[in-house]
Amino acid sequence: MTPRDVSGDDSRWSDLDRPPLNAAALRRGLVREGGLWSGFEVVAGTGSTNSDLVARAAAGKAAEGAVLVAEEQTAGRGRLDRRWTAPPRSGLFFSVLLTPGDVPVARWGWLPLLTGVAVATGLSRAAGVDTALKWPNDLLVTVGGEERKAGGILAERAGEDGVVVGVGINVTLREDELPVPTAGSLALAGAVSTDRDPLLRAVLRSLEEWYERWRAAAGDPTVSGLQETYAAGCATLGRTVRAELPGDRSLVGEAVAVDGDGRLVIATEEGVQEPVGAGDIVHLRPA
Fold first, then answer.
1. Which residue range or ranges hold the BPL/LPL catalytic domain (predicted)?
2. Band of the pLDDT at 10, cuts 50, 70, 90?
């Protein structure tokens, strides 16, 4: 699907509770000399900002720090190729291009976890909502005493030296608009603000801070403080979980740690501690 530029969207005020992003003001506030963000574009709609940015990077049309935001995604993807859809302007749907060439590739797996920490930190500051992270990259909020997913992160390689990280956050999604009962939004979680401009600015500034800190430590999750901060905000740790693993294998046990490679360590009843690097995690009981 070809991206539609915001300026050509005649229906952008169709929902007055959901005004469009102020692209010019956001660009002025985020793109600055010496900063990470090198470009900032908002399109009215596209299939997937991740797919678009990966294609631009492959064609040499995007530099590190490029940010692509869509007011609506019609083919957004989550982990395991799950679809991510939401009404126009009801959330923040964006992708960024990172090229951490001075960080060993073996540590690039920390980028989605780093993004989760940055998103949670930025939203805590700007929305006043308590958030938690479900390993590896879901953002959880509390609605009516229940944990619900309000956001997700997807990282994809872009050529030999790049990674595109996509973020989707439900901001003003209403109860009757939820795709599944386990979904939530910042509004439903009682956010003090659902103005998407300051929310996006706070998230991107937080991401810049964490990325630069991680990069300065050559991607070391301990030196950068990333591993400790992620663990402190991870709702998965201390819980009994079921990991649905590749090859139709499952593993049940207590999530006891996130190791130096960003893997979830699960302790089974047999006394074995097994690190899980990929899979779907189901929380079986509260911490």
1. 29-215
2. very low
Buried b (16+ CB within 10 A) or exposed e, 154-182: bbbebeeebbbbbbbbbbbbeeeebeeee
Number of neighbours of residue 265 by Cβ within 10 angstroms: 16
Is the pLDDT reported for residue 154 higher than 70? yes
* Residue 32 exposed, middle or buried by CB count within 10 Å (0-12, 13-18, 19+): exposed
Say what the pTM is: 0.92
CB contact at 8 A, 92 and 69: yes
Tokens of 172: 């003003």
CB 92 within 8 A of CB 26: no
Pairwise CA distance, residues 132 & 188, whole Å: 15
Distance CA 137, CA 78 (A): 10
